[in-house]
């Protein structure tokens, strides 16, 4: 009674069948194919059968040996601006620094145009002084000019969406004021 493989449960089955191998290594041979193996293909091309018409098949052909045509514009560019010698370590480093500098300048310009309100917010958080007051006034004028072009609209839309989600999720703003009264 203690074992679930009692005599009365499996009366027609073999007592100890071999379990299924989780990682089989012996396989049945594959069925024979109607097509010849790939390794025999060049030999068949060399000796055509009567049913096979002669062809221009070249057993030693390589697709990379085919001639490629360069576009005339590429050829003109290579003629007008021939490639220079390969760069050494110092030249490679200089090229990498130029690329990095361009990316940083481009990102800074994007931020200056599309995120003018950040300079305003930063200048308002600083201690009063001549420098911060100058930055605040300049950022106010800059933000007004950018607002006239409409470049501040994506940031404003995203900010409004964030505030709406924040009110909805965390219960801040008008709902809290209504609950207090």
Q: Write down the overall geometry.
A: flat
Residue runs with pLDDT of under 50 for 5 or more positions: none
Element order: H for helix, E for strand: HHHHHHH
Radius of gyration (CA) equals 39 Å
User: Number of helical segments?
Assistant: 7
Percent range for helical residues? Answer: 40-55%
What is the straight-line distance between the termini? 72 Å
Average residue pLDDT: 78
Describe the largest sheet.
Answer: none
Number of strands: 0
The share of residues in extended strands comes to under 5%
Structural class: mainly alpha
Write the layout of secondary structure elements.
Layout (H helix, E strand, L loop, with lengths): L40 H6 L25 H9 L8 H26 L1 H10 L4 H20 L3 H18 L3 H7 L1
Helix pairs in contact: 4-5
Overall description:
- α4 runs antiparallel to α5 (130-149).
- Helix content is 53%, strand content 0%.
- The chain has 181 residues and is mainly alpha-helical.
Question: What's the short version?
Answer:
This protein is mostly helical and 181 residues long.
Structure keywords:
mainly alpha; 53% helix; single chain; 7 helices; 181 residues
